[in-house]
Every structure is written in C-alpha cells, then in structure tokens.
Specification:
486 residues; single chain; alpha/beta; 13% strand; Amidase signature (AS) enzymes; 15 helices; eight-stranded mixed β-sheet; binds glutamine
Length: 486
C-alpha cells in the first residue's frame, strides 16, 4: 500500500471500509506530519488535535457498526474563512485572531454530519484578499514545489496543505480565483462551483455577489465527492439556489467524445508567455485525443474583467467589513477614549494594508459623487462579461484556457505593485463576475513548477466539468506528481 498521506479521499474511504486502517490511525498520521512539517510551509493557522481524534474515534465506532459514507472518518482541512464552532476562525486577520465562533458554517456542518474529520484551519490571504498568501497576518505560506515561491492565494494554505500531503483534501473559497489559482500554482485540482450551488452561510464575507466555496483536492474524483457533501439549498443563505444536487461521482466515467471545447482567443494572446501557452495547448491536445472538439471562440470583454472586479469586489468588501468595529467581536484597541477612537484605532490596528486599500477603494467607488462613474459602470461591464459567456455557451459546452498567466512567482515579486498582483487573476475573475463554475487541473510544468488548465462550465454544469476533468486525469498523471519526498 502507498504511504497513508499519498492516498486520495476515494482510496481512504475504501480502505477504511475494508478495515485496512482506522480513522484514528490515518488522522493521527496526518496530525504527526503536520506537527513535523507545518513549520516548513506554514499552511495551517490552527490544528485541532483533540477535535480531530475525537471525530476519528466517533467515525471508527460508526464504521464498526456497519455505517458507510464517502467522507466517514476521512481527514481534511477547512480554509480559515469558515466559521467552526469552538475552533478559532481568523480569516487570516489580526482582527479575528481571538474569534471563536459560536456556530458552524453550513459547509462545516454538512461535512461534520457526514463524519468527515477536520484536522485544522488553513492559512489564507487576509479576508481572502490576495493572490499570493502574502497578506496573511499569520505569515505567508510556502509553495511545497519551491519554498521560495508563493502558493497562490487566497486559499494558499489549503492548496499547499494538499500538495505537501498534510491533508488529503481541503476546502477553499473563490471570489476572483482563490481556489483555482492556488490549485494551479501548487499542482492540485480545484473547483469553484456555480454561484448559489454552495451555501455561503458562516463563510466570512468578502464580496457577497462573487464568493463561492468549493473543494481543493488531488483528483477530480475527490472534488466530486466533496462537492456532493458541500452543495445544496440552505434557507440561511438567500442567494443559495434550490436546485437538486446530482451525484457528481456518478457521471465521471462518461465519454467526452463530441464535447465542444471553446478556446477563447483572448486567453492566448501575446500577453500569455509562449511556454505557458504551449503547455496548455499540449493539455488541450489530450482532450482532443479523448474525442473533444476544439472550437475557436471570442470573449471580447475579457480585458475589462479585472478593472470591473476591482471596483465591485472592494465596494462589497467595504460594506461587509464595516461589521469589524471593535464592538461586537474580534480585535478591540486598548483604552479607547470614545466611540470614534474605538472604531478608528480598532480598524487601523486590526486590518492589514491590502484590506485597508480595498476598503478605501470600495468606499470611494460607492460614494455619492463617484457611484455612477465607477460602481454603476462596473456593474454594466459585468453584464457584458456575463453576456459574452452566455453567447459562447450557445456554441460550446466548456471553455478552456490557462488558469494563471505564469507558474508560481517568488515572494515579494509582485508585493509592491498591487496592479501586477491583480493581473494574476486575469483568467479567473470573469468567471466569478458571470457566476459560472470552473476548475483548475494540473496540466504540465514550466521551469519545474506546476501549470494549471482551467475549464469553465455553463451554469450548474459541474457534472460535465468534473466528467471532463476526470477523463483528462485518466490519460494524464500530472495530478499524481508530488513535490513531497517524505
Ligand atoms: N486575488 C483576488 C483578490 O485579491 C481574488 C481573491 C479571491 O478569490 N478571494 O481579490
């Protein structure tokens, strides 16, 4: 048998049922690895040793009485953006360094109900704002493929934990690319579902019209297993859609012969590095060999997605983050003179630089004098971007391209230039503005660093995305490559 940390969720589940090992054994194995190696990668903010072992014991008892379930006794990690009852939830910020939620996010509750075993909470950019994990109050995460490079962001802790085999799988959230881009940079599989597929209740809000939670796993099969558990209607989130959840694992083995895959010319223009483009083309050729038909398409408003996003997301963030005022929960400054001083110093001391930048930009864009010029304009552009996709999906089933413009970059490389950092999301952000589902799959390497292939699906077409991704993974083995030697 492979070492326990090399097993996928699907394999763990099978071997638990066959009693090859107990949940306590595999959970303990991951907790030991985390204890030994987390200081190398800094991918966990908190580790819940006792909680994990208790959950593992409960799962073992259930298995002994004949219970079965795809996540029963399976260890995994949650991004530290999900409220976990009794377990510190920081969102990567000093502002919430002392916050212990009194309730579970819906995603957390659902996975708990299935007997999944949470190992701990993963590091992330502060309030999910970033593409490199460098904005975390808890220090940046290291990319397991090269410790001098970033893991991507904002779900960089989850991506690095899965790549470093410090968790078989993790959850992430994606507002403009935060599941897909770190998945690409760390060589794992990540899925951002259709907006409304997964409840946002208890997931600390960044930009509410864009945020969506999803799985970060080694394989598409594991992503399907996790999505089965995470998805579904929730009365506690008014934007959650009441559409039946299919069994995402049931259709993975269908043939993709005849599947029409649109290749947007805007994603392969002269701005894309030639080696990167060639790597992605090679991956597309694999899909062609499986019977898919590549079709040239256009998404004419692509270039407007980053500017529109960087008005809309900060606008929503400035409103969402107004709740952190030192009164209700989280950080509070020492000895405030009066209420004004309490607000000002709490927020000055509690938020990091990038978060403050976003709040300022957002408040400005929403202000009476500039609302029409910026916020309304950005919403109009958003509509055009969505329309581009709707038109494209009249001709094709799936859209494919690179996930990010380059593989993982060095620490500090883009830190001083917010715009260079924002352009990291050039291929992912439009998908959030349109509310579509998309995946990133390990699809090759460039300079020995992982490269991601992005697949974008039509609304609620996660089944088709996962099926295509799984078929790709039956003929490639990029997703099995590991940076880990021990
Ligand atoms: N990198 C983007 C940003 O900084 C997206 C982040 C995200 O998806 N949470 O806003």
């Amino acid at each position: 048998m492979k070492p326990l940390h090399e097993l996928t969720i699907a394999e763990i589940q099978l071997l638990l049922q066959q009693k090859q090992f107990s949940s306590r054994e595999i959970t303990g194995h991951f907790l030991d690895r985390i204890a030994q190696q987390n200081s190398i990668y800094n991918c966990y903010i908190s580790v819940d040793n006792d909680g994990a072992l208790n959950a593992a014991d409960a799962a073992d008892k259930a298995i002994a009485t004949g219970a079965n379930g795809p996540l029963l006794g399976v260890p995994f990690a949650h991004k530290d953006i999900f409220c976990t009852q009794g377990v510190k939830t920081t969102c990567g910020s000093k502002m919430l360094d002392n916050f212990i939620p009194p309730y579970d996010a819906t995603v957390v509750a659902k996975m708990k109900a299935e007997g999944a075993v949470m190992l701990g909470k993963t590091n992330m950019d502060e309030f999910a704002m970033g593409s490199s994990n460098e904005t975390s109050y808890f220090g940046s995460v290291k990319n397991p493929w090269d410790l001098e490079t970033v893991p991507g962001g904002s779900s960089g802790g989850s991506a690095a934990a899965v790549a470093a085999r410090l968790a078989p799988a993790a959850t992430g959230t994606d507002t403009g690319g935060s599941i897909r881009q770190p998945a690409a940079l760390c060589g794992i599989t990540g899925l951002k579902p259709t907006y409304g597929r997964v409840s946002r209740y208890g997931m600390i809000a960044f930009a509410s019209s864009l945020d969506q939670a999803g799985p970060m796993t080694r394989t598409a099969e594991d992503a399907a297993i996790l999505l089965n558990s995470m998805s579904g209607f929730d009365a506690k989130d008014s934007t959650c859609t009441d559409i039946a959840v299919p069994d995402y694992t049931a259709t993975l083995n269908q043939s993709i012969k005849g599947l029409k895959i649109g290749i947007p010319k805007e994603y392969f223009d002269e701005r894309l590095d030639a080696t990167m483009a060639a790597t992605v083309q090679t991956a597309l050729a694999e899909l062609e060999k499986l019977g898919a038909i590549l079709v040239d398409i256009e998404l004419p408003n692509s270039a407007l997605s980053v500017p529109a996003y960087y008005v809309i997301a900060p606008a929503e963030a400035s409103s969402n983050l107004s709740r952190f005022d030192g009164v209700r929960y989280g950080y509070r400054c020492d000895n405030p003179k009066d209420l004004e001083d309490l607000y000002t110093r709490t927020r000055t001391e509690g938020f990091g630089e990038e978060v403050k930048r976003r709040i300022l930009v957002g408040a400005y864009a929403l202000s009476a004098g500039y609302y029409d010029a910026y916020y309304r304009k950005a919403q109009q552009v958003r509509r055009l971007i969505k329309q581009d996709f709707v038109s494209a999906f009249e001709k094709v089933d799936i859209i494919a391209g690179p996930t990010s413009p380059s593989p993982a970059f060095k620490f500090g490389e883009k830190g001083d230039d917010p715009v260079a950092m924002y352009l990291e999301d050039i291929y992912t952000i439009a998908v959030n503005l349109a509310g579509l589902p998309a995946m990133s799959l390990p699809a090759g390497t460039m300079n020995n660093m992982p490269v991601g292939l992005q697949l974008v699906g039509n609304y609620f077409a996660e089944q088709q995305l996962l099926n295509t991704a799984h078929q790709f993974q039956t003929v490639t083995d990029w997703h099995h490559q590991s940076p880990v030697t021990e």
